[in-house]
Amino acid sequence: MASHVDRPIIFPLSNPTRLHEAVPADILKWTNGRALVATGSPFEPVTGPWGENGADVTIEPAECNNSVVFPGIGLGSVLCRTKRVTDHMLIAAVEGVSELSPALSDPTAALLPGVEIVRDVSVRVARKVIRAAEKEGMATEPGIPGEEEGDGVLEEWIREQMWDAVYRPLKPVKMEGASRLARGELRVVGSFERPGG
Questions:
Q1: Which intervals of the chain form a coiled coil (predicted)?
Q2: Domain total for the chain?
Q3: In a domain, 80, yes or no
Q4: What is the C-alpha to C-alpha distance for residues 34 and 46, in angstroms, rounded to an integer?
Q5: Are 154 and 78 contained in the same domain?
Q6: Are 85 and 152 contained in the same domain?
Q7: Residue 187, in any domain of the structure
Q8: What pLDDT sits at residue 195?
C-alpha cells in the first residue's frame, strides 16, 4: 500500500488485540511512519525516526471504535425524529468525524478523534445527520434551527438536549431510619420477589 500512495490508510483487524492482523509498530516501520493507522483495540504509541532529518517522532495509533460515531448518529436521528436512517445520513456522520481528525493539523497525531471528546464528536455528527435528514425529507421534528441560522445555533440546540450522566450522590442510611424499600422489605406484585422480601 505504501508504494502506491503517500499516506496509506491501514485499518488492521485487531479485536481482540491478541488476534491482530498487524501491529501499528510494524505498519509504521514498514511505511517509514507515513501510514495513517487505526485499530479495533488500543495499542501503545509508536516512536521512530520519521521526523525532520530523521528525528524521533511518537505517533499515536487511533482506535477505530464505533463509540466515536454511533452516539452522534443516534442523537441526530432522535432529535430530528427521522423516518429512517439512510445511506446519506451515515455518509454525513462519517464526514462529521473526518472533519475532527487530529491528523488534519498534525501528521503525527491520531487519524480519528479519541473517545475522550466523544461528546464534541457526537454534536458534530448529530448536526451532519440532521442536515442530511432534512435534505432527504426524513426529518419530522418541527423547530429545528435552519441553515440560515448557522451551524453554531444548531449545535447549541443539540447540546441543550443531550443527556448528561450526572447522578445524585449516594449517602449511607441507618437501618432504623430507612424506608421499607431501602431495607428490602417490599414485595413486587406477581411471582417475582425482591431479595429479602
A1: none
A2: 2
A3: yes
A4: 12
A5: yes
A6: yes
A7: no
A8: 54
